[in-house]
Design goal:
Layout (H helix, E strand, L loop, with lengths): L2 E7 L3 E8 L4 E8 L11 E2 L1 H19 L6 E8 L5 E3 L9 E2 L7 H11 L1 H8 L8 H11 L1 H6 L2 E3 L1 H10 L3 E3 H4 L5 E2 L4 E2 L1 H6 L9 E3 L4 E4 L2 H7 L6 E3 L2 E2 H8 L7 E6 L3 E7 L11 E4 L6 E7 L3 H11 L1 H10 L3 H10 L9 E3 L17 E3 L7 H25 L6 E5 L6 H11 L3 E2 L7 H12 L6 H8 L10 H29 L2
Parallel strand pairs: 1-5, 5-14, 5-15, 9-12, 16-22, 22-23
Antiparallel strand pairs: 1-2, 2-3, 4-7, 6-8, 10-11, 13-14, 16-17, 17-19, 18-19, 20-21
Helix pairs in contact: 1-6, 2-3, 2-4, 10-16, 11-12, 11-14, 12-13, 13-14, 14-15, 16-17
């Protein structure tokens, strides 16, 4: 029996899972670590925390499983995207990593647009300059910490730093590199034009691979620390969402997934390059060689329901504690008692501003249509419907670009709710299913590792062998028209309030 490892380097912790070559999870382990916020809007982590967590979790799963190191043939790493890791000539970390959610680089984004031109930047990188992306972070260090930038010789992403520590190789892959804003996304290589215009040394960047390609193998030093064999291969891996796509089997045209986590994502695979000239959605290279994915993001998805739970559902939380159940289960039952449209009550989920399709940091959440007849169950359902409508906005942009999924997988905490999945099916007008295995990104990169080790000839074939899908919830025909009427009103909320949001921000 051959085994593959999937390492998922997240923001709160690193999770490592050992899988059989058929996709069955054998053992898993997680280690958490801190995030540092020295100023408002800043977010940093220590790269060595990631590496130590990877070493610890690898060693733990090997010990728990009893699997021989010789049978672990390959591993892949998934990671939080966009983080900046800077190393000196000796490969030592120069400063804490500025991670994906850091918001300090607004001036640098303006600098990028000024030097490159926004339209040309989108042509090359498929995205406008955003504070979360890596390029603006590089410029911030150069502008504000020139003594550190002067010592920099290597720039890596979070998962690629862990790869370097495990193998000694400076390597990255196309899906994660797409989020650096230095990659020519159509050409799947570093952009010489961007590097020249922004005056960044090409030698600072790692070699770019496709996600299932072998980038190296475990070094002697890492083998001693982890318990792995020096023969264990390491493949390119993938950024977190690209890895989740592989882990759910979204690797062929017509397939997509929706994640309802803190934020919400609608993610679709496409074999034909599609770029939104308005920059409302992200187009990245995906983990399948020669293909891309298009992704819309809504900021306050599961966050909206959590906010409502924490502030207005004390009774449900207390009852759930006494019953030994999840308060969300009780909240779902309450929401199900309200009709489609929540008795003419709408919710806009803009608690953290919005990305797709509005790209507006100033817009804010609202309940619209409140009357004396409304009860808590109406507000609960309105929150769930509002998030669903926001995700439908994302899907609408994808369809404008010619990317039209035929089926949808639901992921994240919200995806566990049958009520929420039915809303998605009815509003999207397509079947919505879940996968049997819920390991997501860890399984995704383990599948890539299996392809790299030759266990499977391609990523789609590996997914067909290693992923099982539960029966889908089908759209309910009589629900389609009522949801469509409510959604048409929801779509007017942002436009009607755009100037009011701006005025509110100035108070």
């Amino acid at each position: 029996m051959k085994y593959v490892l999937g390492i998922d380097l997240g923001t709160s912790g690193t999770k490592t899972v050992l899988f059989t070559q058929e996709g069955t999870a054998v053992a898993s382990a997680t280690v958490e670590y801190p995030m540092y916020q020295p100023h408002n809007g800043w977010a940093e982590q220590d790269p060595m925390d990631w590496y130590n967590a990877a070493v610890s979790t690898i060693r733990t799963v090997l010990e728990k499983s009893g699997v021989s190191r010789r049978d672990v043939v390959s591993l892949g790493i998934s990671g939080q995207m966009h983080g900046l890791v800077m190393l000196d000539a000796q490969g030592k970390v120069l400063r804490r990593s500025i991670i994906w959610c850091d918001q300090r680089t607004a001036k640098e984004c303006d600098e990028i647009h000024e030097k490159m031109g926004k339209a040309r930047l989108i042509e090359i990188t498929a995205n406008p300059a955003l504070t979360g992306f890596t390029l603006s972070k590089i410029l911030w260090v150069r502008n504000n910490e020139p003594e550190i930038y002067a010592k920099c010789r290597h720039i890596l992403l979070p998962k690629d730093f862990v790869r370097y520590m495990l193998t000694g190789d400076f390597a990255t892959e196309v899906s994660d590199a797409s989020g650096m804003q230095l990659l020519d996304v159509p050409g799947r290589c570093w952009s010489a034009e961007l590097l020249k215009t922004m005056d960044i040394e090409a030698d600072f960047l790692a070699k770019v691979y496709e996600s299932p390609e072998v980038t190296g193998h475990i070094s002697k030093a890492a083998a001693e620390l982890t318990g792995l064999s020096e023969d264990t291969l390491v493949v390119g891996g993938a950024g977190d969402n690209a890895a989740a796509a592989v882990g759910t089997g979204v690797v062929e045209d017509g397939k997509a997934f929706t994640t309802i986590g803190t934020s919400g994502v609608v993610f679709a695979h496409t074999s034909q390059l599609a770029i939104d000239p308005k920059g409302r959605v992200h187009t990245f290279c995906c983990a399948v060689p020669g293909a891309w994915h298009v992704m819309g993001v809504t900021q306050g998805a599961g966050l909206s329901l959590k906010w409502f739970r924490d502030n207005f559902c004390v009774a449900e939380k207390e009852a759930a504690a006494q019953m030994g159940t999840d308060p969300y289960d009780l909240m779902n039952k309450e929401a199900a008692q309200s009709p489609i449209g929540s008795n003419k009550l709408l919710y806009a989920p803009y608690l953290m501003g919005e990305r797709t399709p509005h790209l507006d940091a100033d817009c804010r959440g609202m309940f619209f249509g409140l009357s004396a007849m409304h009860t808590r169950r109406d507000l609960l359902r309105a929150v769930m419907e509002g998030v669903t409508f926001s995700l439908a906005d994302c899907l609408g942009v994808l369809k404008e670009m010619g990317v039209e999924p035929e089926s949808m997988l639901a992921c994240g905490g919200g995806g566990k709710s049958p009520l929420w999945r039915q809303m998605l099916a009815d509003v999207f007008a397509c079947p919505v299913a879940t996968t049997v295995n819920t390991e997501g990104p860890a399984l995704g990169v383990a599948i890539l590792a299996g392809v790299g080790a030759g266990l499977y000839p391609s990523v789609p074939e590996a997914c067909r062998a290693m992923i099982q899908v539960n029966p889908a919830q089908q759209p309910i025909e009589e629900n389609l028209a009522p949801y469509a009427r409510v959604y048409s009103v929801y779509r007017q909320l942002y436009t009607a309030n755009r100037e009011v949001f701006k005025a509110l921000a100035q108070i």
